[in-house]
Amino acid sequence: MADKFEDYCKKLTLGSNSFKEIIHKKQIFVDKTDIVNKLCQRGKYKLLQRPNGFGKTILVDMLEELFLHGVKPYGDHDSYFKGLKIEKLWKDRNTYQVLRFDCFHRQLGDLVDVCSIYTDFALTLSKFAQTYGYEYHDSFSPLDNLDRILEESQENSIVFLIDDFDTPILNVCHSLSCYLETTGHPLDIVTDFLRFILLRIQDFADKFRFVFLTTSNRYYDPTAYFAQSNVKDISFNQELSNIVGFTKEEIKENYQEHIIKKLATQDCLDASEISENDVNSFIKNLDYSYGGYRFNFQTKDCLINPKSALNSLSLDYEYFEPYALASMEDALHTQCEFREDAIKELLKRPKDTFKASIKDIEKPLNFVRMNVLALLFNLGFMTIKSKNTKSYELTFVNSEAIDSLKDSFLNNDNRDLDNVFTRFNPDFRFV
Fold it and tell me: Which of 214, 220, 259, 269 is the most exposed place for a label (fewest CB within 10 A)?
């Protein structure tokens, strides 16, 4: 039975960020392409923020394939969108030049490392120029080359995709106290570079068919970039709120057979002995452990973190461990430095609701001044319960979030953070 279950596990998308690979290997794909169609048709400059593990990179990969080849067969194979909802919805018969810049693997630290972001973008841009016949000069900076390429390009011809836009910022924010006490910090170099790219989107707006950025956090003030660009934050849009993540219904529809095999293997039973009540109970526990995410207060369905849900279905993992959020420990401590006492106080009331202003949640201050509730929401540890004209009501999202925070802040007595934050920001509000 274990061997059969392992065969089933091959259909899970664990470890894969490639849309084409998922389709080619006939792995299970939860079809949300009807929402993707809406994303691409209503405005063309978009930013989406979701926590780690929600499938943003697969979404970007899907968009790349969609704009490169559309939904019709090409070459010697069928379209990767054959049989998906978007196949009948997509009306754009054009194909586009796709410039994609992936930031999620950029491990930046000191000044020398930071300069690599220019090198990486130069390589990305050079390949783009070579593919589409633009001139590229090694003697020019990558940003100068970008200007020249955009000047040469035709109107409405380029699709620009940037995945995990915030990662380079996170990777240089390893010490808030260092940033507060020094000038010329690598963060300034990174933010200047990213700001320049976004300003190019504004200056050459007519050249782009579609621009899409993803981010896992909002720990740097988005208005510093987006107020002067054309990029619209769709993270709280009701119609698009379920574009990534799983609902309970989607879990049951797509993974019921896996759940049965998981339960049968775990309990040494035959699959026929697993009842529908067993399946529903498992999904309920999935939701309790990894669900509860709402990104719009009017949204009916709460979402389950796909990475954690799929890990829990794998034979290699025990039941309901903190997978996705546990992997964010470094980011958590980086961002929560100087907020440890506030988080400990919140953890004393794990079932309570907490009020945060709309501005704090939708347009937070930069990572140095960010309200702790906004910080926990943006890291994926809190979710929206309700909203009125002035504030959001937030709650801890699920048991994974609470357990991960407790492991980080209540079960570690060896951490010794000097609370120097108020020395620089006396008006800072923890809550």
Answer: 269
